[in-house]
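note to self: dont lose this again. the chain is below, predicted strucutre after it. 225 aa total, dont forget to put it in the shared folder this time
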Amino acid sequence: MPLGEVGRQEGHTYPGAMRIELCDDRGDAGFSWIVDEPATRTSHALASEGRVWLVDPVRDEDMLQRAGSLGRPAAVIQLVDRHNRDCAEIATELNVSHLVVPDAVPDSPFEAIALTRNRAWRETALWWPAAHTLVVAEALGTNEFFAAGPETVGVHLLLRLTPPRDALGPLAPEHLLVGHGRGLHGPAATDGLQRALEHSRGGLPRLLARVPGLAADAIRRRRST
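---
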């Protein structure tokens, strides 16, 4: 089924009004969309040679139609075991593979990078060498639950003591896309990545100090919707 037709199907009913915004528009290479909520869930459409891969998608009619304009659907990729979102349903409707924490993405321009592989947390990152694009769903983020102080991107709280330096440190992305927050582009992408990995432990106290206030604000926002 074409992506545009999926977008016209009736979506899920979310509590309150879910506001979706376009972000990280990369032209023919794709774009992202973000949910206006405390978690700022971000989904991605990656386009290459007339095909489109959807990464951790949250269903939205306009965004799925926009993705369909970039090419035919190739697969739905779920980068974190717990990032179910609308991945399975969209993959079924499109009649494409639903790849969950894949060790490889067949017939694609992407390299799969294993970040965590344990019972509590399984996560894969995507590296797109030709487009200098790195997609990290959970180990890194740019919203206020991840980035503290001067950080533009931060390592997840639970990985601050053991950041994925070996896996991600050698990369120099021009586009850094995350699963929570807006992406970084140009020199800021590599600079932010390297600083996040290098200073993850030093930023831990600042982030811990902010967690109670952020959690309380998230609860207030959820109750107001």
